[in-house]
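Action item from last meeting closed. Structure (289 res):
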């Protein structure tokens, strides 16, 4: 392997635009590179993840990185000894580093298999990693390449409760707005109550141990020139500390939503869960499965 090959491969990956949902070109590129590097059983699965392996026997260690990025093109360039581009930090550099590292392992004299996986859709719904779970993938150890810093190992992550709430009212003319509930204002009132509740639960130990909600989208219906909006939907992403499980957070949210609905005459409120991911903390003293 040429000394500058890892940098050249990363540069290729950065120049291959791959926002969530558009990873196929990068997956094809990495598939070819992994085959050239000597990986076995290199393939793309139903979700579009790219797989390859080196070594054999037990244990199995999975190295996993994601191919997708958030949207938005950043010109690829070298500047002051650094390579810039969309995904340079999160997380194509880690993905390329793991591919190169796995290809250089000398496993002839020891038992063990390294499974290299580049997954899709990490920045949205984690469709790639969910495909691995659905396929029944079994590994003994897993290492995920994320921008935690070159000198750090992340052993925990916060959970996620993704939901939307919809407030519906009766439409009316803005000239008679004193007679009608405004669905947008009612939705904002509900959001404020949720935000205030979880703000009071902030931990003195920092954001990792605190529940933090944020609005990720808002849409209103029925409004227009001279019309009071009669429907508004707010999407909320609630991040959960290790001490708060998804079902517990959902009970809290459901209670707050139901209370708000009972208090507001002429307002109906609906709650729909979109996604749940449990918080996780690894046991740093554990040596195996």
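Sequence:
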């Amino acid at each position: 392997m040429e000394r500058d090959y890892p940098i050249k491969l990363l540069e290729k990956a950065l120049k291959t635009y791959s926002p969530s949902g558009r990873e196929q070109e990068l997956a094809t590129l990495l598939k070819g590179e992994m085959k050239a590097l000597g990986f076995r059983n290199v393939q793309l699965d139903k979700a579009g993840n790219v797989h390859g392996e080196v070594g054999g026997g037990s244990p199995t260690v999975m190295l996993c990185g994601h191919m997708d990025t958030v949207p938005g093109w950043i010109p690829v360039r070298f500047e002051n000894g650094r390579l810039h581009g969309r995904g340079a930090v999160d997380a194509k550099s880690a993905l390329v580093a793991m591919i190169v590292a796995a290809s250089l392992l000398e496993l002839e004299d020891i038992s063990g298999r390294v499974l290299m996986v580049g997954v899709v859709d990490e920045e949205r719904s984690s469709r790639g990693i969910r495909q691995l779970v659905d396929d029944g993938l079994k590994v003994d150890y897993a290492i995920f390449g994320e921008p935690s810093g070159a000198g750090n190992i992340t052993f925990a992550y916060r959970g996620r409760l993704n939901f939307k709430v919809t407030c519906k009212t009766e439409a009316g003319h803005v000239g008679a707005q004193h007679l009608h509930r405004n669905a947008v204002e009612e939705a904002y009132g509900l959001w404020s109550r949720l935000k205030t509740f979880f703000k009071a639960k902030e931990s003195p130990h920092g954001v990792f141990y605190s529940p933090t909600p944020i609005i990720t989208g808002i849409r209103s219906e029925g409004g227009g020139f001279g019309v009071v909006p009669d429907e508004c939907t707010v999407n909320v992403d609630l991040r959960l500390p290790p001490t708060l499980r998804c079902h517990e957070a959902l009970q809290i949210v459901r209670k707050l939503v139901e209370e708000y609905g009972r208090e507001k005459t002429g307002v109906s409120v609906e709650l729909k869960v979109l996604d749940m991911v449990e918080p996780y903390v690894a046991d740093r003293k554990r040596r195996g499965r």
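Note appended to the action item: DSSP finds six helices and 15 strands in the chain.
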